[in-house]
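Attaching the record inline, Q. Sequence:
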Amino acid sequence: MQLTSDTYGTLTYEKVRGTGLANRCFNVEGKAGDTIKVSSGQRISEMCLEQQNVFIKEGDEFVPSKITTKETNTLTGIDGPIKIDGGKMIWSEKDGIDFAPTTAQVKGGERYPFLFSQKSLVAEGNGDTFKEGYEFGGKFEVPSYRTEDFLDPKGRGKGRGYDYAAGLGASVNGEKDDQLNFSGNIKTYDTLPGEIKYKVEKVDKEAGEIGGTFTSIQPSDADMGSKVPTDVKIEGKWFAKIQEGTAKDVANDKKID
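Structure, as predicted:
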């Protein structure tokens, strides 16, 4: 089924439940040559990002992997204002479900958890008109995959105040256990950078919808500082609407009387 915003709106809960459709982004049904010119004060709203291919960097190349997370790894409802400055479109992400815990597994069996993110994204593109082939992108933040309340198998956690393994510290070649395992004992909450590029492939001027593909590169889980993160490349599809007004106006439009 070609999933569009119109067709999805006609589906009942029973027709969506258990199908995976809630984890999909809408397709845009635009006419060839459709364009949408934007101006400061408008918003990119109801944005959705769907992961389709995930690659893990091993050595100097990215190798394919399989997403093992259940169908809860799509970002949705992302919203933020547009600004036109010096012939450039600048979009700042401000709200929405802008992160999703995900795990990918490579052929050898090793698994890589990562927090698929678009937090605090500031994206730029040349020109003020969305059309087929238009590209924009920028950098975003990737918070820690683990929260401060997470406890590792030895009961250590940043927010608990218990940051060492119980028992006497062993000595290996003259070095104490707490020195050898410092990164595991002392938890950190690190926010790391990621970068994304969007490409517009469909525009529906009448509906005010745009969509296309994206490529994102971001770090994997650092296990709260105990290991070096790995680069993860994510490819997928995206959907968004161009709307007028403030975030409050957009939210009010969604309210049901």
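Residues 32-144+189-254 form a domain with the Porin fold (CATH 2.40.160.30). The longest strand covers residues 43-58.

More tomorrow.
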